[in-house]
Write a structure and sequence with these properties.
The protein is α/β, with parallel strands linked by helices. The protein has one domain: Rossmann fold (3-Layer(aba) Sandwich), CATH 3.40.50.300. It has helices at residues 13-26, 43-53, 93-97, 110-116, 143-156; strands spanning 6-10, 31-36, 68-71, 76-81, 102-107, 121-128, 134-141. Strands 1-7-6-2-5-4-3 form a seven-stranded mixed sheet. A hairpin with a 5-residue loop joins strand 6 (121-128) and strand 7 (134-141). Helix 1 packs across helix 2 (43-53). The radius of gyration is 14 Å and the shape is globular.
Length: 157
Amino acid sequence: MDNTYITLYSKSPLETEEIGKIIGKISEGRELFLLLGDLGAGKTVLVKGIAKGLGIDAQIVSPTFIIIKNYPGRLTLNHIDLYRINSIEGLGIEEYIDDDLSVTVVEWGEKLIDSLRLKEYLLVKIEITDDNSRKITLVPKGERYIRFIERIREWQT
């Protein structure tokens, strides 16, 4: 069995949000989560859960037109949506990623991987399995995120 990634299954948007809540609760700061998935896969639903896990009560919406939205909580949530972006040049995303007191979640995060030559991040792949169900695969890149996956496994037991 390959322990470098974990696959979780959600049967509803509420369960997807709960998975996000666990991710938010175990976040310690300076995390970078890159979300991948088709339109309607549940990326923003997962971010809502992460926000709840960080103690954020604000209404979370996808920042498609404003690109970056910040929410204060136990740690600041930097919610970035790159759907309409062809180039990240000049957006200043690097300064969000390097903040010890925040968690950065990027929808359509695959656009960052090559652009910033990222060494460490958690890739979150959300696949639609039917109208309400999702397969969520967490793939760590770097030792720090392998430990993060281990903390999620502990949370499950």
